[in-house]
Design brief:
Blueprint lengths: L1 H5 L2 H18 L3 H22 L2 H34 L12 E5 L4 E3 L7 E5 L3 E4 L4 E3 L4 E2 L2 H4 L9 E5 L1 E7 H10 L1 H38 L3
Antiparallel strand pairs: 1-8, 2-7, 3-6, 3-8, 4-5, 4-7
Helix pairs in contact: 2-3, 3-4, 6-7
């Protein structure tokens, strides 16, 4: 009790900030973690200001707006994913703020078949080709996502850049974190990759039909 009498009131904000900081370490989902982190920042700001501990004050004055921005981004991501799922869209516009831009030159190999799948891509400009299938990837197309779900986490095709361009990339770690932190994203990502898989199957079936027709024509018109 004597300790409580001699403890100045700003110290209570410091203790509360420490407690909330410990709580954040035990949290598993991103939105509650950001909310508690913002509370922690606010408590440390009060503590640092009235106690004259300026490094703590400055640090949390920086972290508070940063956590606020990240919280808004995550909330918007959830809203956009829910909207996309509701309307049956399969674009990844909602994921673009989390992706990094990368450029490729003609002749560059984006990745080889059998490589470890460490990222997914979205073609912004330029032209890219599936080497094994001879199929060109159009602008605005997701690719490399199937490797993230492959049992051995390996690439199933080789992608070559055939015209200078840029792509957006999201790392495997980013996708995995979003998948576990946001069930809506996880469901939508599975639906996106499933649709891509069925598109590939449909494209292969059409190519097989075309080749069978060519063989039939050659059989009817022998040289």
């Amino acid at each position: 009790m004597e300790f409580l009498k001699h403890t100045e009131w700003p110290m209570w904000f410091g203790y509360a900030a420490v407690a909330s900081s410990v709580i954040t370490c035990a949290m598993k989902t991103m939105i509650p973690l950001r909310v508690v982190s913002m509370t922690c920042n606010a408590l440390f700001i009060v503590y640092g200001f009235f106690s004259g501990i300026y490094p703590t004050l400055i640090l949390n004055l920086i972290l508070l707006p940063l956590n606020t921005v990240r919280l808004q981004q995550m909330r918007k991501l959830i809203q956009d994913v829910e909207a996309a799922a509701s309307y049956g869209e399969t674009s990844i516009d909602w994921l673009k703020p989390f992706m990094a831009r990368r450029g490729f030159r003609k002749g560059d190999i984006v990745f080889h078949k059998g490589d470890l799948a460490d990222a997914m891509y979205y073609s912004v400009s330029g032209r890219y080709r599936l080497c094994e299938m001879g199929i060109e990837i159009p602008t605005g197309q997701v690719f490399g996502d199937l490797g993230l779900l492959a049992p051995d986490n390996r690439r199933t095709q080789t992608i070559e850049c055939i015209e200078d361009g840029q792509v957006l990339t999201a790392s495997y770690q980013q996708v995995k974190e979003l998948y576990f932190q946001n069930p809506h994203f996880g469901f939508y990502f599975l639906r996106l990759t499933t649709e891509r898989l069925f598109d590939n199957i449909s494209r292969l079936e059409k190519e097989l039909v075309r080749k069978n027709e060519m063989l039939a024509q050659l059989g009817q018109n022998p040289a």
